[in-house]
Fold this protein.
Amino acid sequence: MERASLQFDKVDADMRNIIEEARVILPGLQALFGFQTVAVFSERFEDLASFAKACHVGGLVLVIVAVAMVMTPAIYYRACRGHANAPMVRVSATMIRGALAPLACGLALDVFTVFHAVTESLATSITVALAVFALLVGLWFVLPGRARRRAGK
């Protein structure tokens, strides 16, 4: 009986940690979404090429996907009246980690848009956007993956 109680406490603590991570990440995502939304109302946005506008809108949509994924664990936990279980923790952890993929894509698309607005060079914009994407993938996926493998998990 005590072992089951300890397992429940661990699962509940894991879920609370995931929700706390979401609370830390969410304000930054919301601020990014706000800046992305406001950008379309600037005069400069009208001067952008159609493909650059499309990239910006794509980035906006991907940030919305990331926001939804980050918010899902708290909503899931609340829907279950604060009773966490192991599958809930697995899904929630996957949502938090998974939100980084659309966020990386969205940021790269917005970097493309900004660099295209500044330089009007398609080659430069693509190069910088790909570099940003590679940096984010490296830091958010490759580095943690290597650390997990080294830890034997």
